[in-house]
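tool_call: predict_structure(chain=1)
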Amino acid sequence: MRSSCVANSVQNRSVVISSSVEPLSSVFLEGLTKLEVHSVLAAATLRRYPANCVLTYQDDPADYFFLLRTGCARMFYITQQGRKVLLRWLLPGEVLGGTALLASPSLYLASTEMVRSGSLFVWHRHIIRDLAARYPKLLDNALLVAVEHLTWFVATHMALVSSTARERLAHVLLTLARGIGRKVPGGIQLDITNEQLANAANITLFTASRFLSEWHRDGALEKKRGKLTVCDPDRLFSESNLV
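tool_result:
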């Protein structure tokens, strides 16, 4: 079995840091009282990991559950031919290693690595399951996270069967906006980067940035660093192959 950063923390230079942290916004913790959030986080070990550190390997036992506090991570899959397929990016507040919550011992479905150095709350499987039994809202929130991941999968899969790069990107944006977007004044907001969209649509970063800039100029969307607001879904719908 390969040694992940968690299983071999000394070799991979992970460092235990103070558990006294700033408030963290996370779907996984929504609906809990401040006291309950403190109890859940206090049961974790807060560790810092360097960039390029692999946290989990696909098909390894899902012994740990993670909540990203700072930095950036991404999930990936290694095919039988050895090709590394990038899946989705993870930002602060997001969780990974969800199969550790299952009743039966399971395997990680994908690998996860740090893109930028950062810190994560880490729970062993038996600890996070005990917490979920004590606070059932955690399982409810974990289901919401699973739906978000499924939304990404649907968006990516549908993009692959669309015909042009422009259509694929428009379809990804529409699917994500409907699935995990938040209604804000002026449209539907997504916490997403150009790189994430490019990978989901299976196009280059340059191509994605070019189309997004064009749609921004036309008023179909607004783009800020790490955030995108779909202002005119009808325009994107006409750009996709759904018409």
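agent: The longest helix spans residues 137-160. Proceeding to next step.
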